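batch job 7 of whatever, protein = Mutator family transposase
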Amino acid sequence: MDGRKDTAVEAVLEQLIEHGPGEIASVFARAFELAMQIERERFLGAGLYERTPGRKGYANGYKAKRIDTPAGTVSVQVPKTAGHDGEPFYPRSLERGRRSVRAVMLAVAEMYIKGVSTRQAEAVMREFGIESLSSSQVSRAARLLDDELQAWRTRPLGEVKYLILDARYEKMRHHGVVRDAAVLSAIGIGADERRRVLGVSVALSEAEVHWRDFLESLVARGLRGVEFIVSDDHAGLRAARRAVLGGATWQRCQFHLARNAIHHAPNTGIRKRIGAELRAVWNASTLAKAETALAELVASYRGTAPKLATWLEENVPEGLAVFTLPENHRRRLR
């Protein structure tokens, strides 16, 4: 990566660490193991099962070692050797890899959204201290990373009860130019009530065509059983959601509603308190009480901020669908 900030990749990495830690940690571990295997081959002067005149010693299995990463602790298989004199084999990439965890994970996140190239695979190996790779070693690294990421990106999804859709604009390099890009994400909650990243896509905008392609890719991977969707009310997302997942109940994201309400507030005093006033509505114990609290809030602004009152009346009810869910699920789906 060059000095120009690619915040889209950073954003994807944070999503994957928060809601898909097992998957990104697994790819990191496989890359780590490959770097150590290449280092062992160089130490022995031969690859696994390869016979060469200058070979010294032989591969002698692996020893498991646990490595802490931002996505949790992973187990890696550290290669061992036997049958040689002199200093015992110890992969220097083991220590280098520990210091380069985030850099490698950033590279993995970039490959997750852009695909794997030999240049990127070689760069990942360099993060582990493995330089001057042969063309076959570079191809081997690229193939391993591509296989791991492809299995992750295309894994079957199955039944997902709740779906959270979001987009954020970040900087991304595209054909050498840094420009704004929309990072589209889908987080699912299944029967085990755990949040998982179902997919992440970087698009040029939030236009319907991009959201529809993204949602259809999830359905093609077996996404089914979606009963409840949380998202903002962006026109492109709204149209795509209705076309692809129109049977699900929709909840307008309360965070986005609160932020939009601030923009409609006519003065600083209202802007400072409107968020707390909306939280009082959303924290009501029942839908009926929430609707009553909203009606009172709207009435309180009829005289002093009529445009805000109208906006609240027309938009905030879209954030009350969550009251149809069991109470213990509501806070996670606002």
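notes: Residues 82 and 92 are 17 Å apart (CA to CA).
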